[in-house]
Amino acid sequence: MHRTALLARQGAFTRSCGRSLASAALCAAALATALPSLAQDDALALDDWAAIEQAAQGQTVYWNAWGGDSRTNDYLSWVADELEARHDIELVHVKLSDTSTAVSRVIAEKAAGNLDEGAIDLIWINGENFAAMKDNDLLFGPFAEALPNYALTRADANPEVRVDFTVPTEGYEAPWGKAQLTFYYDSARVETPPGSMTELLDWARTHPGRFTYPLVPDFTGSTFLKQALIELTPDTAPLYQPVEESDFAAITAPLWDYLDTLHPYLWREGRNFPTSGPEMKRLMGDGELSLAFTFIPSEPAAAVADFQLPPTTRSYVLDGGTLGNVHFVAIPFNASHKAGALVTANFLLSPEAQAHKQDPAVWGDRTVLDMSALSNKERVTFIDDSDNPAALPADALSKTLPEPHPSWMERLEAAWLERYGNQ
Amino acid sequence: MRLFSPTIRTIPWLAMALLSLPVAGGLAGVLAPALGWLPALGGNELTLEHWRTLVATPGLADMVRLSLSAGLASALISLAIVMLFLGAFAETRALALVRRLLSPLLAVPHAAAAIGIAFLLAPSGLASRLLSPWPSGWDTPPDYLFPGDPWGLGLIIGLVIKEVPFLLLMSLAALPQCQAQARLRLARSLGYAPVTAFAKAVLPGLYPLIRLPIYAVIAFASANVEVAMILGPTTPPPLAVAVVRWINDPDLSMRFVASAAALLQLGVTLAALGLWWLGERLVASLSRTALTGGRREAGDRLWAGAGGLATLLAVLLLGGSLMGLVLWSLAAWWPFPAALPSPLSYHAWQGALPGLKEPLTQTALIGLAATGLSLLLTVGALEAEHLRHRGMAAWAELVLYLPLVVPPVAFLFGLVQLQVQAGLAPGALAVILAHSLFVLPYVFLSLAESYRRLDPRWAQVAASLGHSQASLFWRVRLPLLTVPILTAAAVGFSVSVGQYLPTLLMSAGRLSTLTTEAVSLASGGDRRLTAVYALMQLLLPALGFALALALPRLLMRHRSGVLNP
Q1: CB A9 to CB B523 under 8 A?
Q2: In the predicted structure, residue B10 carries a pLDDT above the cut 80
Q3: Same domain, B462 and B376
């Protein structure tokens, strides 16, 4: 396996959600059995929320989160102000360029035997980073379903908040927001953008050099591969089983044919790739590309407001829908301020924090709360009455495709690197 | 002052202890996982399996080739430019001008320079905008593969324009130590043409003085990550970039392969240094006859022209990339092919300024502390050499330079582990110590040769006038070395300002410096904000270099001979 991952924002919107979940019961069971041991280990009884809030008072919570977006950073400082005022918690945003740095730190601490005085209290995480930390017992929990506001996600009706990259979260991370693969284009140069992968190929033929995708295995680049595979392969059922159980070569053959045909029409004729989604966005701003995509639906509109993209930018989702996922916050097993981290995670799930986050003028990150769990008064705060031509139409995000099994992702990335990584 | 000698004699040991422990810890943190040992990730047995995985990586040979060629080519080109320039313009006004230009240029952080170069030369960059739509006829950016070309030319250019100012500064600091002026005048009076006179009379004396800086350039260029990520090819990338990718891979088992690759990178860097060393021997033996052949002139005009042109090009490129950064920091929506942003906007500055105060103070304080510590240890170690009349042991010097040749990404993991084990709380102290690891080698290599080659007769004369060792040090040696010491301090300070991973990891992200802010913002791809932070990053070291140039003139105004002995 020769996989490489890029210094992108792996942390934020890494991978995926899926629907293969028999995990609800599992989570509850795990929670029930874990409670007593937690209480012993950490003197934190997750069923006594008042005690947790009391313990959290005066704590400083170090939240390691990707810091590459000033709007996200501004939202985080709003959260810090609110926590200070409501709970006497000092929240410090440790800005990362890559979540793996935080993972490194936790591993080093574990290797050095630091089991309860870790320097990281909360991590913005999902996908592979979560799976890796969970597999290596680097996370505290299960805690998510003990958060009072967790009920507002109505997880039984919205199973995607319990699954990360098809891996059951089992309460080791709390949902925070939602993302979906969104395409955007410059309407001054493109009249009708391609609505499917097949149309994309035709479009690239007539617009050579004006489209590309990030270098695999950057998560945005890998998502493009998965999106293409889902559309191109006749039968998608095997994609939701472990890759070992099916004929990888046969199922992915249409994808490689497609890419072989597409690459000569890509930016730099497919001999070089942007290293991340943000770099692809910059190429759009420079006019080198006319069509690109992102995992953050609100990003194109925000980038127009920040002068990073042409004012004529428009967003859309492919006709057949696109891949989407949920992102989370998790607490390292050795976090020094677990009570503070729990209160923070709970506040992030409050209707007020979620509505503020979803406001396109603030960040535009979609809520994980279920509107039917909220009061009328709370629901109103989520309504977006702004009218931004660069933003995605409100109903577009309903067409969400589930993620394939993670083993597909790994094989796809390895196969891609073998074919195109060494030209 | 009886304490002077004993105190000085302990400093080398202090320096070694301070360095060798982290270096050993850092190396162990690479070596063990490379051999499969990292229990925190389930690596419980020694195995060569990860090496086999590494060797089977497609494109590994190309990665190694790119690292080697970038390291050697950029050092060779930079050295050639600097020497030709000095040969052609020593003792002219052009030199004084370049000297003044040098400090801001040298202060540009590598990543910022690379971003600037990329913007200057990319198909949608400033150069192409100036030519569009007329005379190029481009309404939209053309689609050529540069930078990021598979030969690494873009990468080499990016490295060269950063290394030329560094080597020039090192040479300028060393010139007085090898009596360049006197040698040059003598050669000229014997009828040698300027460049030939420089090459035959000064160069053989100058080269040994700047050898260590050149080695540092080779090590840096062959193991560099930031510049290579921005200007280098991607399929495949240079080895150091691949190491970073593997170490950042969410699949934690890749860390074993990354550790093996980091050791390979160490080998590649050492190989580059070895090749260079062989080249040195070759040139030395080949040039023996030419040096003493007595030929007064050998294509002098041509060489002088080439030197001037190359320097001009380097300065233009670096200046142009700086200009690009300034423009971007003031740009609103700036589409191709507009050559200038219009209207200008303070949007990015307004957004960034309120948050700049804390990072600016932290950066300055950490930089001053790390530089001060490094300077103290360096001067102490060199003075101890002087007192013992014997150079530093080879192993000690090796320890000193190890942080420069081991790829920091791999090295730092072990360092964090060590920090946790030592119970050193994440914060300013840990960061200062970690910065010193990288600052100390640069301060040392900037200062060592000048210190070692200081004419001993000055001290002998003073001693014969009855001065003690301490008094010799404070009143004779230090003042004579003011220029190189301040230059070394400025270099060290700029190294500290540019540190990203050590700051982030050793403070657990709790200290925000200009560089940590800049790198995390740069990952979001907004060139305007990136430009603002890059310019701020440049400000502090530029101040340092300006002081290094101005202070001696101020302090030594009654002893101008010190500036030009």
Answers
A1: yes
A2: yes
A3: yes
